[in-house]
Amino acid sequence: MLANIDSLMHGFTVALTGYHIMLMVGGVLLGILVGVLPGLGAPNGVTLLLPLTFSMDPVSAIILLTSLYWGALFGGSTTSILFNIPGEPSSVATTFDGYPMARQGRATEALTYAFLSAGFGALVGIIVITLLSSAVASFALRFGPPEYFAVYALAFASFVAFGGGAPVKTIIALGLGFGFGMVGTDTVSGSMRLTFELDQLIRGISFLVVVIGLFGLGELLLTIEEGPEFKGASGRIDPREMFRAAARMPRYWFAMLRGSAVGVWMGITPGGPTAASFMSYGIARRTSRNRDNFGKGEPEGVIAPETADHSAGTAAMLPMLSLGIPGSATAAVMLGGLMIWGLNPGPMLFLEQRDFVWGMIASMYLGNVIGVVLVLATVPLFAAMLSVSFSIIGPIIVTVCMVGAYTVAGAPFDLWLALAFGAVGYLMKKLDYPLAPLILAMVIGDKAEDAFRQSMLSSSGSLGILWSNWLAGTLTTLAILFLCWPFVALLLGRRSAAEVAITPAAGHEENRA
Amino acid sequence: MLTRFHLELGFAGLVLLIGATGLVGSSGLDFGWGADGPRAGYFPFRVAVILVAMATLVAVQAIINRAALRRVVVAEPEGLRRVLGFGLPIIGLVLVAQWLGLYVAMALYLLVVIRWQGRRPWHTALGVALGVTVVTFLIFEIWFQVPLLKGPLEIMLGLG
């Protein structure tokens, strides 16, 4: 533990340069912008910025991208509260009580609760990372290919068991991700796979283009369908009201701690911020003393999802850094970034790239403080920006997405791909197919396959190696159990076939109501 | 009116098609299990099989529950019109970008969409179209030196 504090201090010396603080401020501001605009969310905000970081030093690049992530998480809550339009999927739960509060003229109060509890949740997440990441990494250093494959399999399987979507649809999303990820050159044998002799497919399908399509254009189409009109509460912030609300925050300590715990858990296991915020809201609504007031403007209904959202967002960085497994769609994009910058995500980072790892962790503390301050200061500005009609902002976002899709590889064909995935993303959202597993499978699918094939090479083709020691054996068995659980539940009559194949269980629906 | 039932079937059909394409694509590869583990086509083939099977499952369940799913309207005609009105011009944008370059395409797209779909006056549409394009050019070509797709116009102007 003490060694970690020491490393963290070293990290601060890396992160605390004028240039890096400038990047944090810039990243957070861009992030708030991305978070406020519907159709631009954290995953594709990071994706759009990624090609511009290829020439940067990795520490600076990750500071810029993570700051953008924090900004996006904060920005998403602003529109949820003021306009009842979630700027991010993970801030949907914030609309349930945030918007009613704003309608009652308590917008300042709701925003203050949201940002401070979000900052608190993020802090808890970062402390967990500071304390645990190097321990997890040094544990993971003993991993060989079989253990890695088992961890990957467990990550995929836990989406199926706990992801919140219908299990069959989660498997389809994973399968599509694996399939699209396989297009191109096979890394083990060097042969071409699924390219159908099309030149454009030889270099594979970039997951960045897929993110821009699914999360960017798809989300825009959904927003436009609902006929977005930014008719909301005023974004004016009254400083005195803000301080009074801040002084009332300690009263909700239990909701904040519980939300953080839910968030940290969902961030480390790949549930992600969206699932975490819904879950935290659901628990708070069922157990709170003020449960009758939920949905009508209850502060706890803002605090619970916000703390969980942000602690999940930050905690998702823990498995990304120490195991090379992203805990959310945004973390998956960043993981792809690490590989592009020439870093090898996983436990070796902690030995070989100390400056990078601890510089990034230290910057997370500072980035979130900057985030809270900046978002409070700029709410009126961004609220005013949304009053510009969507018929102007929408098309501009489309061009930003298209430019982003082109910069990934400089290929005109990628524009068509982004377009196609935009349509697919729209349909998937309409039908409750989860999107995050698709991205996760695309980013780490080939790593999982490599790990599997390397294991088989060393065992000369025997599957027994996956159970050759207690660690790999336990993980593999758990993965199989998780994968089979929904179908076992079906056989036991605990779930109906329609729940497994078409829509999530009734419990999840209730959370959304 | 589009119901959830039709959309479920439609998307399951699309997944089925992707799965079938994967089957065709991987059947040309060696998809067996060699002496040292799976061959190149092993995983593509199995993923394709899983996609086909799961898509069939969704379709079957949708048909069994069709009565309930038919009652769920996924898109009102008005919303659908908005989606198409927003989506079709994007196809135009991509099409034009292929031969005139991204800058010209985005300027035309913004101009057309804001003028006719947004029903904004000419000066607003023109201002946004030119402004966004010029700012994009400055950010990408000058500041970050990331070249974007260019067409005959840029070459004529000596910018390509």
From TrEMBL, chain A:
Phylogenetic classification of the source organism: Bacteria, Pseudomonadati, Pseudomonadota, Alphaproteobacteria, Acetobacterales
Membrane-spanning parts: 12-36, 110-137, 149-181, 201-222, 323-344, 356-376, 382-406, 470-492
Name of one Pfam family that matches: TctA
Alphabetized InterPro entries for the sequence: DUF112_TM
Source organism superkingdom: Bacteria
Protein name as it appears in the record: Tripartite tricarboxylate transporter permease
Keywords: Membrane, Transmembrane, Transmembrane helix
Domain DUF112: 21-440
Gene source species: Teichococcus vastitatis
Automatic annotation (TrEMBL), chain B:
Annotated ranges, domain DUF1468: 12-148
Pfam family, one: TctB
Organism domain of life: Bacteria
Chain segments annotated as transmembrane: 12-33, 45-64, 84-112, 124-144
Alphabetically ordered keywords of this record: Membrane, Transmembrane, Transmembrane helix
UniProt name for this protein: Tripartite tricarboxylate transporter TctB family protein
